[in-house]
Amino acid sequence: MTLNLDNLEYKLPENKIAKYPLKNREDAKLLCLNKVNSEIIHTKIKNLPDILTQDDLIIFNNTKVNNWRFYGNLTTGAKVEVLLYERKSETTFLAMLSANRRIKENEEIKFKHGISAIVEFKEEKRILEFARNKDFENWLSKDGDVPIPPYLRRKSEPIDYDRYQTIFSKNPGSIAAPTAGFHFSEKLIANITKKKIEVAEITLEIGIGTFSPIRTKDFRQHKMHEEKYEIPKDVVNKIAQTHSKGGRVIAIGTTVTRALESAYLNKKDVLNPGKGTSNLFITPGYKFKVINGLLTNFHLPKSTLLSLVIAFAGKNSTEIAYTSALNEDYRFYSYGDAMLIT
Asked: Is the CB of residue 221 less than 8 Å from the CB of residue 304?
């Protein structure tokens, strides 16, 4: 396919966007796509134990979303929405700011409970330097809203504090969730392990890079922001064992895919354990070296996530799958249904 941004476009009716999660995680629909012949089977996530085999290994991202969306006011009274996305020191954070007027450097933002911060500029980045306050850590951990995606067109609600995390979430550091993991409940994992299917966890801290839209016409020119990852030694061993016996390594989500493929590239064709950073942007033509399968949600047009899916499944198979999902009334995006590509 030609590497042109138009290849990542498709039309999605507003009513196909899942605004809320289903009552039960494993009740989501699952589209199984054979990327070789484009054959499709429609089923449900809860049937995964019968779809996977004993030689398969499924890998989750165990990152935890920081509820760091806050609302404050400038000294003029103007309202400001703040999303903190990276902590640089005890009181210094990188932030995304939204207000109904341009925010100036050195302006003060005031929050609840006497918390305040000064806005600093560093090129395109916006930095908040918070005033020292004995209640700061308590405010940071308890007062923030869940940073649900803007396309949901609503503020976070009590249900999001539970459902905008996976059951694996344990390592704080992300501004968005690894949404493919939403579909897995404790019951489903128990059913999967009963079938002797291996389960493993890694960590990739999801930052603004994963969701920054592609704005360049030739999307190879798009630059990804770096994201931190960690791959434990036992996971590397499990991957090697799976491959040696002819099994499949199935990434649960695009973030797991990027972490594993980055570790392979960064270690000069050897997948080693440990910590690293990834700015890997996977585009059509990329040769996957670690994963053999991908379970993922249905993604936004013109996104790096959709580019990765097309790179793995092929453009023709992806178009067939997305068209079928629309015709079968699948739910799209973060709280939506899923597809398994093998």
From this structure: no
| Number of alpha carbons in the 13 Å side-chain half-sphere of residue 271 | 23
pLDDT score at 327: 95
The residues spanned by each domain of the chain are 5-65+159-341, 69-144
> Which CATH number does 69-144 carry?
2.40.10.240
Query: The pTM is what?
Result: 0.94
- As a whole number of Å, the CA-based R_g of the chain is 21
Q: Spell out the alpha helix ranges (H) of the chain.
A: 48-51, 136-142, 158-163, 186-194, 208-211, 233-244, 254-266, 304-313, 315-327
The whole-number pLDDT of residue 185 equals 98
H helix count then E strand count, the chain: 9, 17
Cα separations in angstroms, 46 against 127, 227, 229:
44, 31, 29
pLDDT surpassing 50 at residue 253: yes
Q: Which two tokens stand for residue 339?
A: 């597809």
| 257 closest CA partner among 225, 216, 214, 286 | 286
Of the candidate CATH numbers 3.40.1780.10, 1.20.120.520, 3.20.20.140, 3.50.50.60, the domain formed by 5-65+159-341 belongs to 3.40.1780.10
pLDDT greater than 90 at residue 243: yes
- Residue 154 predicted with pLDDT over 70: yes
Q: What is the pLDDT of residues 162-187, one digit of tens each?
A: 999 999 999 999 999 999 999 999 99
SS3 of 9, please?
coil
Q: How far is CA 164 from the centre of its chain?
A: 11
Tell whether the model's pLDDT for residue 226 goes beyond 60. yes
Is the Cβ–Cβ distance between 82 and 109 less than 8 Å? yes
Contacts of 98 (CB under 8 A, 6+ apart): 80, 81, 82
